[in-house]
Write a structure and sequence with these properties.
The complex is a heterodimer of chains A (about 120) and B (about 200). Chain A has about 120 residues and is mostly helical. Helix content of chain A is about 75%, strand content about 0%. Chain A contains five helices and no strands. Chain B has about 200 residues and is mostly helical. Chain B has a domain of about 100 residues: Rna Polymerase Sigma Factor, Chain: A (Orthogonal Bundle), CATH 1.10.1740. Chain B is elongated and about 65 Å long. Chain B starts with 7 loop residues before the first helix and ends with a helix. The chains are: A mainly alpha (about 120), B mainly alpha (about 200).
Chain lengths: ~120, ~200
Amino acid sequence: MDGKDVDERRIEQEVARTMSSLDDLPTPSADAGFFSRLERRLAGIGAEKPRLAARLFGDLRLGYALLVVIVLANLATAYFAVQGMTTAESRDQSLETLAAQFMPNLPGAQAANQWPD
Amino acid sequence: MDDRKLSDTELLAGLLQRRPEAFRQLVERRKHQVLNICYRFVHNAEDAEDIAQETFVEVYRSIASFRKSSSLQTWIYRIAVTRSLNFIRNQKRLKRGGAVQEISRDAEGAAELPGPAIDDPHQALEQKERRQVLAQALDRLPQNQRIAFILSKYEEISHQDIAGILGTTVASVEALVHRAKTNLQKRLSTYYRGASQKSA
């Protein structure tokens, strides 16, 4: 038997030993307190505080109140957005008039200088 | 408290009615197997107990969804296997950061496996190394082969149970175990051949 065969045989033996290395694993046993710990865990889960959204929407009146607040906040945002646009428009017009009075050579200024008939 | 041993039908009816005594009996009957299933996947007694408890919590919560297409015990074992695999996946995700870390985690996990008491420290070290190598090789198997192989090593779980857990037939389970062994042998041979060449 040459060295190569010896090596192959050694590898085969090692593979077999490795394959069976989990065969003799011990079997842990659940102790007597397993169920008590499980009961405590279940009780803990039951007592968990519900999430904020669940708490808010769990109460119907509180849910409606929150909805009204959200709708009002949206309306207020829309109002101020429109208001802001109007202010910007009038500011642009004022600037054009000013430019027409003091810098008549600017393009568009002559039109602004002419009085309507 | 009613200490009479409930039949399987009574047990299931009791669980569906959320009777505490039925749940207690179920846990007492199945805790050992569930714990050992988890242990064979996660290789750590504390983690295995934690997963076993989570398994029973899920059983308690979702018993109404049990469809009786399999036996109650197979359903519970399936939950235990799924939870164990999820645990391993989450652990890997947490420790992700390179293959080196993953390999070392596997090795650590395998190292935690307590083997039989071996007096010779050299032998004990060799056995520990073998378990590390096997754990790494197992990790690279397809999931169903890995499940079939690991569970087949646990004598208290029948091939019928494994078939129920995997949702397949007993013949398929036997084929999976056979394929797993063949793949493991190939991988291990390659590994030891490489190690032998390095040391030469």
